[in-house]
Specification:
Layout: H1 9-18, E1 22-26, E2 33-34, E3 46-49, H2 59-64, E4 67-70, H3 82-98
Parallel strand pairs: 1-3, 1-4, 2-4
C-alpha cells in the first residue's frame, strides 16, 4: 500500500480503520482506557493519534478512533508536553507488545 500526505486527520483515521488498523487517540476523554490497563492486541496493527500540544486531539478525530487511551496522572496539573506524552505511550505499547 502506498501512502501519501493526507491533509485531514479524520480521513486518515477512517482509512486506517478500513485497513483493519486499530486507532487510538491519546487524550483525557470520557470512557478512555487508562494506559496501564490498555493491552494492544497481538497480530493487529495499532496507530496512535497525538493531539495539538495546547488543544489536544480534535473531538471529531476522537469519535473516528477505535478508542481513547489516557495517561494516568496524579496531582492538579493534568497535562504533559507532547514529546513526553508520545515517549511514554510508545514505550508502554512497545514494552507490552514484546511480551
Amino acid at each position: 500500500m502506498e501512502w501519501e500526505h493526507v491533509p485531514d486527520t479524520v480521513d486518515l483515521i477512517l482509512r486506517l480503520n478500513e485497513e483493519g488498523v486499530k486507532t487510538y487517540a491519546i487524550e483525557q476523554a470520557e470512557n478512555a482506557i487508562m494506559l496501564d490497563d490498555f493491552q494492544p492486541q497481538s497480530n493487529t496493527k495499532t496507530a496512535i493519534v497525538m493531539g495539538n500540544e495546547v488543544k489536544g486531539v480534535h473531538q471529531d478525530a476522537i469519535y473516528a478512533c477505535t478508542g481513547v487511551i489516557e495517561i494516568p496522572q496524579i496531582g492538579t496539573k493534568h497535562s504533559l508536553n507532547i514529546s513526553v506524552c508520545t515517549g511514554v505511550v510508545v514505550w508502554d505499547l512497545f514494552s507490552k507488545m514484546k511480551r
